[in-house]
Predict the 3D structure of the following.
Amino acid sequence: MKPLKTVRLSDQVIEALKELIDSEGFSLGDKFYSENELTKKLDVSRSSIREAVRILEVTGVVTVKHGKGIFIADPMKKELEAFKEWLINNETSIFEHFEVRLMIDPKAAGVAAVKADHEDIMHMEKACRDFEAVYNEGKTPALIKHDEEFHLAMAKSTKNRTLYYLMKTMTSSLSEGWVTSLHTPGRSEKTIKEHKVIFQAIKNKDPKAAEKAMRDHLDNALADIRASLG
Amino acid sequence: MKPLKTVRLSDQVIEALKELIDSEGFSLGDKFYSENELTKKLDVSRSSIREAVRILEVTGVVTVKHGKGIFIADPMKKELEAFKEWLINNETSIFEHFEVRLMIDPKAAGVAAVKADHEDIMHMEKACRDFEAVYNEGKTPALIKHDEEFHLAMAKSTKNRTLYYLMKTMTSSLSEGWVTSLHTPGRSEKTIKEHKVIFQAIKNKDPKAAEKAMRDHLDNALADIRASLG
DNA sequence: AGATGTCTACTTATCGGACAAGTCAATTAT
DNA sequence: ATAATTGACTTGTCCGATAAGTAGACATCT
């Protein structure tokens, strides 16, 4: 790479690095080339490489770790991990969790009803089927996983990655701490029915019905938990 | 300036330069110190100075002109251009963030209206005052911090720690470099008014009014951002 | 065998000096 | 007076050296 007049070299390097990441299929968390490797690869001094990498770091494309190397970054990942850790360590109550989920999930279901495509519909339908199948096999502990699968499929179909990652963080922290509490007597059967109602509303592209169905689902689940806890 | 363990020197330089700009009263278009001057002034090698200056350039604090020097930039103008670029390059956009915030914040404001105690009210009132004070001083870049302060105080008064930490995670996930772009022309004045409306509704323990005020606030902010981006 | 410390290679972080190249104004030649 | 030149100052890039964090291999001790 030779300097082009009037255009800063390090700016060209920035573009070259983005291109490298895309074209060579680097993804989330992968270790990138070291500064020395990049020096040879792009035939540019290490100073220019460093400037470019540093800028890619502040713009959230990569993260640089002293002594380890350059890694492809996930913008929200760091914060979400800290969030999850906090959720687990602080044993936040299941009621807090539901209060938040009641804010998010119904609205998300409404958005999903508008934006879900065929693939999303298939995914949610599969989650419903899996839940029912596992229930019929009597594998109660595994049910929570498929409950999450449905809610995550729903979140994904909103086409909002931020929302999706957020839900993933919350659900994963939930399954690690409160597995047993969620399966109160008779809850699984109700969940199967309620998920189907939500699914149908989304499939019918009816936002209001989807929102209401999701709210009812969470309200019912919360009521059952309260009842079982006395 | 001596190196501090575990903290990158160039990061410290960034803060030092921001401090220099503030404390020595540099303003829009002024010629800043040259790299050599900064080297002597901060007792740091030119490489580190360059890294820091380069980052301040991409975040819109200064502009660097070959052969001429470093100049204090117009934050708004520069950043709005860069912000557009950033939105294009990053898949998770500010719009995704707002879509999620629109799900959470209004409901949270409703809960806050019910559960906020005296201390919470004081905290929110302080956030409103701080925002207005900083605005009157013309320190635009610092406004976002006090905007977040208000929303976090609101979240905290829900007494739901999960919700609070969630909000904290989301606000911090907004890339630090581009936050001032959120303050489009005329937005600050509106924010002051809108925050007051939300605050009053919460203080009056009126959940529905609080919810509506928050929804309006976010809708308006989003509309302004869309408008400023064309 | 298992725990512990040391060595080594590789990585990023910082430094200092060198030269290229753009800018501007004072000086000089015409 | 005008044009060309020079020189000082600026950022842009390169190079080589050293510091410091990391991880795995290896040897040592218990």
About this structure: The interface with chain B takes residues 8, 10, 18, 47, 50-51, 54-55, 58-60, 66, 75-76, 79-80, 82-83, 86-87, 90, 92, 96-97, 99-100, 102-104, 107-108, 111, 158, 160-163, 166, 170 of chain A (CB under 8 Å). Strands of chain A lie at 62-65, 69-72. The mean pLDDT of chain A is 83. The domain at 78-228 of chain A is CATH 1.20.120.530 (Four Helix Bundle (Hemerythrin (Met), subunit A)).
